[in-house]
Amino acid sequence: MLASVRPMNEDLKAQIRTEVGGGAKLDAPYLILNGLATVIASYGLLQNSTAVVIGAMLVAMLMGPILSLALGIVDGNESMIRRSITSEVIGALMVLAIAWIIGRIHSDIPVGTEVFSRTSPGILDLLVAIAGGAAGAYSCTSKKISGGMVGVAIATALVPPLSVCGLLLARGALGPAFGAFTLFFANFVAIQVAASGVFFAVGFRPHLEDKESRAGFIRRNAPSLGLIGLLAIGLTWNFIATLNRQIQKSGIEDAIKMVLRSQPGRDLVGVELKALERETSVLATIRSPFTFTPEEVERMERMLPESGKPIRLTIRTVLTKETNRDGYIHQMDPAEVAPVDPMQDVQPAPPEPVDSGSEPSPADPDALDQALPGSPMIPPMEEPGNAPE
Question: 137: exposed, middle or buried (C-beta count within 10 Å: 0-12, 13-18, 19+)?
Fold first, then answer.
């Protein structure tokens, strides 16, 4: 048990209370560092740079009020609880505001994977936050392992998901913005619950001799436990849904690649899935020297794995030509790539050759009039010397 690893005496408890409680102080350093962390995180997200985003995690100070809140709940310190919640809310709102302003200024910059990876949290994110919160709280109980807070700050990111939320709100992407805020809120609750458990285990136990004290302890911890239970259910459902989509997407990509193996010059670029009410829409982007015919798309659609709903395949062809010094590569006839039923796709017969003896000459207007029935007769041009008087 943690209590046996690090026994707590009253002097050490008082020292830890002072240090942890100081993390919830709403002062200039707290606001300045969180503001700078938001700027770093926002530009790192827009640059799609993981290293810059990690730097923002190390500068941010949103972790302090959460640990202070966790200790206040265990100790029953109402003043510490109010102070911690106030600091965290003000800090979070400031991060959102700064990220929103940056998002408005740079609304023309496309977002990348660093942004989208934080818009669909799952149960794994919650488990990481629980472990990080426990590590953060335990780091506060010993100076020998205080350096572990650096790793905790990276593992339990708070400013990056809030920055993603602000950037996406500036672009009007409410759905992904809500997903990013959900990630922040899940981290917040998980860190608090895990930290409270660690503080309780190492010796910060309130006096629970009477019924009223026990009721107060349960009342203080019930909201957090209820929230983490609801988050666990919701994030588990989202994780399963996301996993199923990834499995289906991977199966569709494999099926399309298998078809394209026998068609040189055609390569799959990417696949996008969109779940509709009655079907799953699949948009496949393929590089090819020729466009796909409807018959090809239909045959390929029948080969795709379904997942409860029928699939409607749309192929976006990116026309490409590969060339080397010997000439063009993959000069294929589209009819050879995708043979079709001749009864459904009848090619017009070539015009029959005209007898050279009766072929009209473009310089002979009389012959042109005879070749084009119904056209008015054009009188021959008179020589200037033969003009009638």
Answer: buried
